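Hi F.,

I've been meaning to write this up properly since the lab meeting, where we talked about keeping a consistent format for the predictions we share between groups. The idea is simple: the sequence comes first, exactly as it goes in, then the structure tokens exactly as they come out, then a line or two of notes. No screenshots and no reformatting. I'm using this chain as the first example so we have something concrete to point to.
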Amino acid sequence: MKSDTEATDVSATRVLQEVLKLSNKLIAPFSTYLERQHKISLNEFRLLMLIGRFPALASHELADMTGVNPMSVSRAVAALVKHGRVVVVRDNANRRRKTIMLSDKGRKLYDVMQPQTEKVANYFVSALDPDELQQFSTMIGKLTQALEAEDEQGRSLFMEHTRPVETASPRSRGAVRNA
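Output, unedited:
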């Protein structure tokens, strides 16, 4: 039960806490039912589900679509390849481009995981009526767009804006005083 203060607190920090909690709750069915049984990490699962829906994606496209950093995507792809769940194929039209596709083993796993993913998605939005679902989707799109915005040099505005303020450590302050 939420206290009166919690119920009326709509600060940015409170909303962030709720979004993080929501994210953790959404991951729970994966962790409970799929991760151990199929020996697959969360990032591998995310990529497998995307590749199943959108065959022949490149790693950078997977990173863009998931919001997972490229190094983590690379590690997850390597693990999926190692376990025979995906194959990496050079694009004949663009020899520098490598696409990632489900293997037969990966397709079977996708077919097992897809209904569970649908269950989670349907339950997640079941409390919303169609208009609220559309509004929620619009809001998520706006928030994602703001987080993905870049400056003229291609730097993330979000990362630049949220960079911690550099403060001198106690040791360096002492060194300055003693100089």
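Notes:
The beta strands are 86-90, 98-102.
The chain has a mean pLDDT of 89.

If this format works for you, I'll send the rest the same way.

G.
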